[in-house]
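Table S7 (text form). Paired inputs.
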Amino acid sequence: MSHSRFPQQLLLTVILGGSLTAIPCLADSQARIVRLSEVQGDVQIDRNNGQGYERALLNFPITQGEKIRTLENGRAELEFEDGSTLRLTPRTATAVSRLSLLGSGGKLSEVQVEEGTIYVNFFGGTDDEFDLTFAREKLALKRATHVRIALGDADAVVAVFKGEAEVVTPTGPVEIAKGHAARFDLASDQHSLANNVDADANDSWDKQQSQYQQQYSDNSYSNYSPYAYGTSDLNYYGSFFALPGYGMLWQPYFVGAGWDPWMNGAWTLFPGSGYGWVSSYPWGWTPYHYGTWTFLPLYGWVWQPGGAWMGDYALPTFLDAPTGFAPPRLPSIPGRRVILVSRGPRPTQLGNKIEIVSNSAGLGIPRGRVRSLDRLAQSVEQKGFVTTKLHANSVAGSGWWHGGSSVRSSAGGGNGGSTSSSHSSAGHASSGGHH
């Protein structure tokens, strides 16, 4: 077979049909990146490069020293390597002040809340620590904890949904148990405790996002990625399948012969490194920082795990491109920080319904709000489009790989070569309470 590779691809060693052992490229204490995993409405980022705030892009890699803020109708989520999340509600500003590797092998993440309301769902890995600072207070999380911090002009309220928290204040530590809250007077350094948690207008959004992550994540991510972030999106928006000679592969739903993985995204300039690719697809994190895209007859473009993890400076990596394929090329326009690429179709949303078309690859489908994407993909394969209902909450029902076998057609369908997979639905049950 003839192999096509993106020039300058010395960052990644492709492993075909063999071990999926990953070698993360984390050479120093500040080599970590986290993922901007959700962008709704007006979200901005200050990349700590002297240029101030600019429009934030989904799947943008966040590094130490950068700031994220949401405007009137904006919401955002940051996802960390182990799947822990930080969610920003409208009119919220945060700074990622520290992303470090500890001598113990754990990770230290420190976020400063400058204004607004955030939710943190920290999974509490061994030796990991998640520090949250607001005003003169500091909340250090070392075990699994789910908290909400609301910072106002004169006070701040910390509510604990899961686990327990200790807030260090100028007058001493304050312990907050599960289902309790504490209000801090920022002027007098006084505090008061409540044995309940008052509801907030953003609680339902946070709950939906947590349920989505719980339903579509699994413990087998180490088989195809060194990190957990992005796992739930891979499981919701596409399917894994095994192919002799290649091992485990993944492909998004709603793709045909005319689709390629670089139809929607942006070239983003990283000072000191050059341009890197940022995918616009909701699942577009892990497949663009790890592994290789390969074109297979009768299947189309598929992603194969393996090799070494790439950091913020990610470049397209591919094999066996079809005849006539125009490979993605580094921009030749100097000085432009973001160059958008939009060649693929987008779904059309009308009220509580959405029309999904072939080659949209999940673009524009809100997380967890469409049932049974695997079955809908088969309808799109046959008809070219499908209209379906958007549900208010994250829902189970899409087929996804859960470590078992998958059934996959080997014959090309009406979309010119893309195939659909059929799985037993194995979504996790969601909790009935708030978290």
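Next pair, protein 2 of 2.
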Amino acid sequence: MTHTVPHLELTGVSIDFPTPNGPFRALNKVNLKIEEGEFISLIGHSGCGKSTVLNIVAGLYKATEGGVLLDGKEVDEPGPERAVVFQNHSLLPWLTAYENVELAVKQVFKGQKTKPEMKEWIEHNLNLVHMDHAMDKRPDEISGGMKQRVGIARALAMEPKILLMDEPFGALDALTRAHLQDSLMEITSSLGNTVIMITHDVDEAVLLSDRIVMMTNGPAATIGEILEVNLERPRNRVELSDDSEYNHYRHAVLQFLYEKQRNPDDKTEASKTDKEEMSEEASMASEKLTDNKPEAA
């Protein structure tokens, strides 16, 4: 019987941060196996350790206990096989969109690609995110959504095995966010990237994910539940708004967040029951989903 090594594996991952009162345990015994090409969303209340998990996988933090393996090799430092897209686009303001992507390409492929090959590769990745028309513009000359497209192009240009996304659309308006979600589904479908994305948006998690990893509240946060999303791809947000299976997944995530893991920052007695809150949020989200009918971005 052959044993298949998971593409990415987190085993017993715990991390302590020093404080004047002693170590603070942010994460406790996180275990997760991710297969190649999976789209994983991490969701939970603020302070549940989502970004900490992402930073450990990125190699920016080192676990106090346990560890991370990528294709059987220990992750203990940053590397180009794990590209990160942040909520803030992090583009250099004095460089054009082309030049921002070029920086990453030169870093990763110096000595491997010729100058013409690099040029072709940069333009290819800007075209993937529909930014080939604005490659000569600086960040202050383009919109927030366009900046995020460039950030995604820069990450993809590194040809990573894992794409790590920390609330990449969180600062965008609803319509721009919908366009970029559709673009991301299109890109990951064609490239087969493995994606781990942090989100606070339940609809975003269900729409994009193969599995949703729901985190418990901190301190000592860990994985509470994992929900498999068995919706056919490609996915259309308008059609899914009335899909019973889609709404079943939404309800399962909302139930975890609002009933099983109440927001730890909410210290006042709620004037409504959790079920009422869930019902209202579900109604608003359904309206938002229908209003955000995809158009050309």
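The mean pLDDT is 88.
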